[in-house]
Amino acid sequence: MNAGVRLHGVRKTYGDGTVALDDVSLSVPPGRFVSLIGPSGCGKSTLLRLVAGLEAQDHGQVSVHGVSPEDACAAKLIGLVPQTPALLPWLDVLRNVTLPRRMNRRAAARRAEIAGVEARAVLQEPDMLSLLARAGLAEAVHRLPSQLSGGMQQRVAIVRAFGLRPDVLLMDEPFSALDEFTREALQEQLLDLWDELQTTVLFVTHSIQEAVRLSDTVVVMAPDPGRVVDVIDIDLPRPRGQQLLEQGRFHAYEDRVRNALRGAWRVPGAA
Ligand SMILES: Nc1ncnc2c1ncn2[C@@H]1O[C@H](COP(=O)(O)OP(=O)(O)OP(=O)(O)O)[C@@H](O)[C@H]1O
């Protein structure tokens, strides 16, 4: 079976000699929600950029549904939600989320071939108004981005990404600039959409609670050089509402991730 996303023995060195990733292997089955967590500089964003085809590795292989990231991007299999929403300021919310949807038939055919689905299904337009309403944006569809709060803008960016129905969605700390209350509400909406659309998600975060709440698997990374130090499967029932967050088994997973992160801070070779 083709893994949704697969990295094997990946090394990435930047021009100044920084080894951002060293011998990273990771296999993310289709439909799984996987978080990357680790200290600043451990290569989380670099890993996403490699999967998105925005950077190239020096060694090893990266594949998305069995093809190169460039092929997967050209066939529109991949969606990306950056840290800041990057909406077009002159378009209202509805136009912002519908504009990128226009997909040509050739890309649709290639995508269908790679992902093993019918081209017709790929070309089907999702109901963007309904997706916006599900994200709590029904009243805002005709507003401009400048008339929205930061949390609302980020919701629009998430709806836009899901509206493309990507097979793989890459999210780089999408909630880091938001207050805790908005963040929790958005986590819930993200899980709802993910549950419905069955997208494979790679999600970068600095929050242990967020990683445990959202993920099927948490990948813990360490810096100098950037590498994977632990892969923790989160075997908790879904939906993961507020109640679960207060339970011992949830805290036990938080502790496991925290301990793995403590190890990640240690300098290799130090006593
Ligand atoms: N374009 C670049 N040129 C040179 N070095 C870079 C470049 N981009 C990233 N790096 C370096 O590569 C390493 C990994 O960076 P990356 O941004 O992937 O880490 P990160 O885990 O996402 O960090 P953060 O949590 O702070 O966002 C860091 O040492 C960083 O300084």
From TrEMBL:
Keywords: ATP-binding, Nucleotide-binding, Transport. The keyword Oxidoreductase does not apply. Pfam families: ABC_tran. This is NitT/TauT family transport system ATP-binding protein. PANTHER family: ABC TRANSPORTER ATP-BINDING PROTEIN (PTHR42788:SF20), TAURINE IMPORT ATP-BINDING PROTEIN-RELATED (PTHR42788). GO terms for molecular function: ATP binding; ATP hydrolysis activity. The lineage of its organism: Bacteria, Bacillati, Actinomycetota, Actinomycetes, Kineosporiales. Residues 5-248 form the ABC transporter domain. The keyword Nucleotide-binding applies. SMART domains: AAA (SM00382). InterPro entries: AAA+_ATPase, ABC_transporter-like_ATP-bd, ABC_transporter-like_CS, ABC_transporter_ATP-bind, P-loop_NTPase.
